[in-house]
Design a protein that fits this description.
The chain folds into two domains: about 5-25 and about 80-165, PH-domain like (Roll), CATH 2.30.29; about 25-75. About 45% of the residues lie in helices and about 25% in strands. The protein is built from five helices and seven strands. It has helices at about 25-45, 55-75, 130-135, 140-155, 160-165, and strands at about 20, 80-85, 85-90, 95-100, 105-110, 115-120, 125-130. The strands form two sheets. Strands 1-2-3-4 form a four-stranded antiparallel β-sheet, with helices on one face. A three-stranded antiparallel β-sheet has the order 5-6-7.
């Protein structure tokens, strides 16, 4: 899932170019969205639609289409890019980046089954990245682990779980 450095368009101003990029869940989320719509249609056909059920059927269809659209947009717009000393995460609405070689704190949060790493650098920039998105590309994991070791040597605050995830590749 990585690309050659010449194909990586974005790097923070004044920092070295990217070494790797991962675009998590692209095709699988779109397939999931299509599957969700198909499930809604099949469920409606099996259940049967009586005239009294039309409002329910329309509400269910609207919900299924809205969730599928959200999943597709989120998948198409998610990107993790890393370079020497920095990590960038682009979500649906914005791009966040931080200096991974100048981290001051790393926290681990959980959202459902996912572990979310919150990394904050010495200049106050913050990145929230889902660990499974980060580990899609081995080059990103190696680069971030290298930079995190530098931050730890400089005194970054990091709980044991974050150390295990980032330094040991857990």
């Amino acid at each position: 899932m990585s690309s050659a450095p010449s194909q990586l368009p974005w790097a923070p101003p004044g920092l070295p170019p990217a070494v790797a990029r991962a675009q998590p869940a692209g095709r699988s989320v779109v397939k999931g969205a299509v599957g969700l719509v198909a499930f809604g249609v099949v469920f409606g056909l099996i259940r049967g639609v009586r005239p009294s059920d039309v409002p329910f059927a329309l509400a269910m269809l609207a919900f299924v289409v809205a969730v599928a659209a959200y999943m597709a947009v989120r998948a198409a717009r998610t990107e993790v890019v890393a370079g020497p000393g920095w990590l960038s995460v682009r979500g649906v609405f914005r791009r966040q980046w931080t200096r991974t070689d100048q981290l001051r704190s790393v926290k681990v949060h959980r959202s459902g089954f996912e572990r979310i790493l919150e990394m904050r650098d010495s200049e106050g920039r913050k990145v929230d990245v889902i660990w499974s998105d980060l580990r899609l590309d081995d080059a990103i994991v190696r680069q971030v682990a290298r930079d995190v070791r530098t931050s730890l040597a400089a005194g970054a605050e990091m709980p044991a779980e974050a150390r295990q995830i980032l330094v040991a590749g857990g």
